[in-house]
From TrEMBL:
Record keywords, A-Z: Glycosidase, Hydrolase, Menaquinone biosynthesis
NCBIfam families: fut_nucase, PRK08236.1
Ranges in a coiled coil: none
Family: Belongs to the PNP/UDP phosphorylase family. Futalosine hydrolase subfamily.
Alphabetical list of HAMAP family matching this protein: MqnB
CDD domains given in the database record: futalosine_nucleosidase_MqnB
Name of the top EC class for this enzyme: hydrolase
Domain Nucleoside phosphorylase: 44-204
Reaction it catalyzes: futalosine + H2O = dehypoxanthine futalosine + hypoxanthine
Gene: mqnB
The protein's name in its UniProt record: Futalosine hydrolase
GO molecular function: hydrolase activity, acting on glycosyl bonds
Amino acid sequence: MRVLVVTAVPAERDAVTRAFGGGPGMREVPGAELHRAGPFDVLAGGVGPAAAAAATAFALAAAPLSAPYALVVSAGIGGGFAPAAPVGSLVVATGIVAADLGAETPDGFVPVTGLGFGRDTFLPPEALVRDVAEATGAVPGPVLTVSTVTGSAARAAELLAAHPGALAEAMEGFGVAEAGDRFGVPALELRAVSNTVGPRDREAWRIGDALAALTGAFGKTAPVVESWNRHDRLDRHRD
């Protein structure tokens, strides 16, 4: 079984495929292209959780019945919460959290689960998170999905107060995980930190360095994912 990797933009997709020399071929899915690279099919699905969910669902539905995906990975660059996730570091999600899905009330923000429906967190496979962290040097911890990138110290503090221990924020992870869950496919999120969450300062962003770190991470992740996939299939066969 292969692994589906979903990024937001082509630059992130290409950073993943560069780990394998660019990938030998492409396959069309509705509205996009899948780039084959090592054990991964890599898709630039668009910015934000809705686009990510739609692109992931299309790709999962288009997979041959004889060769379904074993895992979906939300990958790319993102903002890191200092000092836990400095610029240039890697983070792997122990929880993929919809940080702004809910309602504002007179008493503050209430997550969708607090409203009595839905869910706001997906938990990637613990063993896979551990092995990816060991192989790549990524820091494990919660990664937040937001629809609006944080641009102030006050908002960064609010997010950390609501989600203690959060390492990073990005815009697609929860959408990818939501689509995967509908197909019974587990999700992972791997991010390279390009900027610090807080006041928006584009001059301080290190996008090139983060993309290079993403390339290096996927070169090291491939054998981990392949090993996990083999063991996961054996465990399911025993059950």
